[in-house]
Amino acid sequence: MVREDTEVKGLLYAGTEYGMYISYDDGTNWTSFQKNLPLVPVTDLVVKNQYLIAATQGRSLWMIDDLHIIRQSISADKSTTILYKPADVYRVGGTQNKEIKQAGVNHAGGVSTHFFLPQFDEKKDTIVLTYLTNHGDTIRTFSSHAEKDSDKLKTKKGSNMHIWDLRYPSAKKFEGMILWWSSLRGPAAKTGEYKVSLKLNSSLIGTQTFNVIKNPLSEGSEKDISDQFDFIQSINKKIDEAHQAIIDIRDMKIQLTSYNEKVDDAEVKSL
User: Which CATH number fits domain 78-270: 2.60.40.1930, 2.40.50.100, 1.10.8.420, 3.10.20.740?
Assistant: First the structure.
């Protein structure tokens, strides 16, 4: 069973009695494309958009959903750092458990950004991914040396993938606060075009664009999405102001306590 890629001429996928194979040169040479697919007969293949769907005999359906990376990697120079163009993504949620053993792994939700590092020194090198609006305004920044775990970019030599859940920064919180069935999460990005840039040690490697597409199952209009986004952002801005005021008051109390202690010590010494 052989299928040709719908976008790249000469890129072929083959399903056999003993698994999957791929050819980058119109069938002259073939390489194993098994990945985590069990060694099982492949009875049919379908290439649709960036998906390769395989029907197997006895192991149900399997799917690869990142064909756009394979397509781009054919002509890419693997001796240099590469930022691949992300696929357009639907504005939907989603969670992922990679440790699950008895079922398939769900898509994580959000935009998947792939990049390649021919060399990487964990201590010396700093990798930074920045997501921006189409006007160039920064939304989120992730770094291999970020202080916060939520901003940490897991990076290694070779192929890397980072998933941004499309969420804007959360509202500010302070130590000891309690939320009952509530959240400080920022809103999900509106539909439209966005950018992602990759930096290596402050040098810009490249910038790619991608689109956030409206969920076809959503009953809300584009205006509804925009209004919801603006509302959540306005609420979070007020929360930021209120919580920052609490943080400032606490800091002031600490400074006053410290000042009073120093004054008391000075008075004792003067006696």
Answer: 2.60.40.1930
